[in-house]
Amino acid sequence: MVEEPAGLGERGRRMWRESLAIWSLTPAHLVLLEEACRIADRLDLLESILRAPSADVNADTPQFADISGVLGESRKQSAALKALLAEIRQGQRAAPPGAAASAGGAGVSDLSARIAERRKKASG
User: Fold this and answer.
1) Residue 23 belongs to a domain
2) 47-72 tens-digit pLDDT
3) Residue 29 CA to chain centroid, in angstroms?
4) Are 7 and 41 in contact (CB under 8 A)?
5) Domain encompassing residue 71
6) What burial letters (b/e) apply to 52-82, b meaning 16+ CB within 10 Å?
7) Counting CB atoms within 10 angstroms of each CB, which of 52, 53, 74, 76 has the fewest?
8) Domain count, the chain
9) Could you tell me which residues come within 8 angstroms of residue 122 by beta carbon, excluding any fewer than 6 positions away?
10) Half-sphere exposure of 3 (CA within 13 A, CB side)
């Protein structure tokens, strides 16, 4: 198995492990996966900033922090993550034998195989 990149957070580590369980990636796509995992961790950080109560809130004169910059960055990071994952999915090699089955089938070919199997059982 490919070694987990250093410095990943909880979500990034989970994404790394689960992705490698279902995908067999080229070295170039492993780099993209690492960046996607870092973006996932960054999105968690941005979400925690967005959900944190504002330190500037005063009961007498409420003042709220301007979160538009954080919200905008969160949207950009989400779009970047979506694009990276699409690129990774397009460039994946065939998964190791049994990987898709243990993951419950993750691709169109897995779905097609399951449909064909059900049709065979129904007609036989």
Assistant:
1) yes
2) 999 888 765 555 555 566 678 899 99
3) 14
4) no
5) 10-54+65-93
6) eeeeeeeeeeeeeeeeeeeeeebeebeeebe
7) 53
8) 1
9) none
10) 3
